[in-house]
Amino acid sequence: MGQIIRKAAAQDAAGWLELLKQTLGSDPLAEQVYDLSRAGDQLIGPQVEETWLVEVDGKLRGSISLLASSVPNSNPVANLARHLVLPENYRDGSAEALIRGINEVCIQRKQMAVLRVPAADHDQQQLLEKLGYACVGFQPLKHLCMVREAALFYVRIGTPDPAVRLPLSQSLPQITELASLVLENLLIPNPEIVRDGLTGYPLQTDLLIEEYAPADYDACKLQAELSHPPVEISGYYNRGLGVLRVDTGTPLLALMGQRDGVLVGGLTCYFDDHDKCMRIVDGFATDDLSTGALLQRAAQLAQERFNAVYVEVDILIDARRALKSAEQLGFVPVAYLPGFYNRNGCCVDLVKMVKLNAVYSLDNVNLTPAARAIVEIIDRNFQDQKVGVAVIQLLRGLPIFGGLGDGELGKMARLFTQKLYRPGEKVFSKGDSSNEAYIVMRGQIDICLDENARPVASINSGAITGEQAFLDGAPRTAIGIAAQPSILLVIQRPAFNALVHSEPHLGMVVMRNIAVEVSNKLRKANAALGMAQK
Fold it and tell me: How many domains does the chain have?
């Protein structure tokens, strides 16, 4: 059996197209590729640096492409895609020969390799791990190719590891846990973890965000670069669509923010109509306020205008405030990409963050033990976000949680437990220690100053009582009684304090809101007392 590994040429387009149909099927969503007149461009066109093929006994049996970046850069990464392989390739060794060949190409180019792998393809996972790749990420619902598929990210780094790493932040626990396992799998020493009291950019600002032409964005960014704003987002690896990264010339959407009539930041993204997702590809800010609001607006547009299944963005690991803002908005780290961004000769790690707007399951995945360990971390973080969706909606409408993003509301929601009360049952008594706060999901709680006294206030569905427990835990000055069958959400003060210990920004926002609420109540009480004395 003769095997040949060679670079593709224009005359291979017809054979490659047949291979594509054999491996992926005639997916109508990729019709730009299944047109023979266009297949050549996708094989060796401007979006592809080169494609390598494996032939067995003169028959084309597999291929893999190195995709070109949408903008010139010096990042030390070979973006591998369109890995087409037939089941028999694993048995006859041609799949291994092709990967070994592309590894040699990456070594010659002095580049790391990154490849997306279907989470259901156990054979490909095993092969890559045998040849020096490590699983560094997992993204549910990544691609739509006949059916919606999850993807694993595999990386093979150069020698030595090109990155210089700062300590990881204890304030970004999801990222820190994922990064620690990825670096361990790649045999890279783990950096230390520091407690830094990190806070994200404010999400509620006076920034006026509007859509601009991409050319206006480019001009504004060029002008902004004179003040050397920090690079936080790096998403120009490839602007193609779908699993095949087809180039269809999809336009960028540019968002620009201005304050007091001055443009202070911007962000670009595009909607992938194949995978039904939004990809954020670039951003800048000349102040220390705008990035969070711009990310929030992009996430809102993705859901409201495009009904996107997910939003994704690649953020530099040293852009900690941007990472924290993404977390506050409900983004989850799905891949840790070591040394992927070249900043003046110094390589910086990237974190791929994803905000899901749909549910998924792991029913169709077939994982190696190494891949499963990565998937379990990421899946747990997504599952944590799904806990208590109704609770998050309830918290969002309460003034004391105003200013918190979806990610922070999710962390708060996990602290609540549900309790049922019968009519006439006491929720709390006068003199009790104020260690709990209550949100009424359904029903009504009457507040009385003494036993058998008439209620001085009633707490109805969607309202909170006992929030001053967050402040001092002083004894209760009234009695709470269920006026009807009621379902309450209860949060314990110690649990809240533990969260604030690791999330100081969240605690600061809630405490500030409680202080405003207490101030408003005192003001109303003083006004009522003044009226009564007249």
Answer: 3
Place of tokens 């010339």: 249
pLDDT band at residue 532 using 50, 70 and 90 as cut-offs: low
State which residues form the domain around 247: 168-382
Per-residue pLDDT, averaged over 332-341, amounts to 93
Choice among 59-73, 137-151, 240-254, 495-509 with the minimum mean pLDDT: 240-254
Is it the case that residue 278 has pLDDT exceeding 90?
Answer: yes
Other CB atoms within 10 Å distance of the CB of residue 195: 11
CA distances from 301 to 10, 53, 297, 494, 509 (A): 40, 41, 6, 37, 25
Measured between alpha carbons, how far is 110 from 409 in angstroms, rounded to an integer? 44
CATH number of residue 522's parent domain: 2.60.120.10
Provide the pLDDT for residue 514: 81
pTM: 0.81
CA dist 25 and 19 (Å) reads: 9
Same-domain status, 365 and 263: yes
134-145 vs 147-156, strand pairing mode = antiparallel
Q: What is the pLDDT of residue 267?
A: 95
Q: Report whether pLDDT(256) > 90.
A: yes
- The CB density around residue 58, as the number of other CB atoms within 10 Å, is 7
Q: Which of 423, 426, 394 is nearest to 409 (CA)?
A: 394
Residue 356, φ and ψ in degrees, nearest 5 = -90, 140
Do 407 and 322 sit in the same domain of this protein? no
How far is it, in rounded angstroms, from Cα 263 to Cα 229?
Answer: 14
Q: What is the mean pLDDT of the chain?
A: 85
Q: How far apart are CA 170 and CA 120, in angstroms?
A: 33
Specify whether 115 is located in the same domain as 240.
Answer: no
Q: Which bin fits 215, alpha (ψ -120 to 50), beta or left (φ > 0)?
A: alpha
pLDDT exceeds 80 at position 324: yes
